[in-house]
């Protein structure tokens, strides 16, 4: 249990850093589908190979179909925006981090025998590494940008706690790959948030299949 807990904390920190680096270089609507859409496929392969989870052909097809959302972001980008392979690399690294902590937390909760105790311990400890990293990199000034967004941060943290708590519990009663795949359906809501709240332009090449094999110019 302690070993899995420390592995989960390290993977979560890697996820935060990789996702932040990706968002600093490209639109949310381009990064999020790769980061979240690629994770279920990796998780499925790892679960079958390492954990011995049983997945039916229909379930496997459903996971593969959902993973196809990560290709949406590769079909187009904002007009005039240069292709940034580094941003996509960070998005891919984020997907690997998600797959890693999903497996570790799913197995950890099953081993602990109490997903609620596991989730509570995880979220209490998980808040410290990122703060320590910010202090190490920038000192006390590194925490200053958080102050204007304290309430939003608390609200986001509460929603993150609730959503992942449910996911950890679900992984103790259902196959890990299926829970991971359903969880990543959040890419649809993220696309709406990016357009409505963040005012990112709606790229129709990301919302519909292109008519030709060439990448659209939009």
Layout: helices, strands, pairs:
Layout: H1 2-23, H2 28-37, H3 39-51, H4 57-67, H5 85-112, H6 115-138, H7 150-170, H8 176-183, H9 186-196, H10 204-207
Helix pairs in contact: 1-5, 1-6, 2-5, 2-9, 3-4, 3-5, 3-8, 4-8, 5-6, 6-7
Compact overview of the structure:
With 218 residues, the chain is mostly helical.
Would you write up a description of this structure?
The protein has 218 residues and is mainly alpha-helical. The chain has one domain (2-71, 82-207). Helix content is 70%, strand content 0%. The chain contains ten helices and no strands. It has helices at residues 2-23, 28-37, 39-51, 57-67, 85-112, 115-138, 150-170, 176-183, 186-196, 204-207. Helix 2 (28-37) crosses helix 5. The protein starts with a helix and ends in an 11-residue tail after the last helix. The model is unreliable at 204-218 (pLDDT under 50).
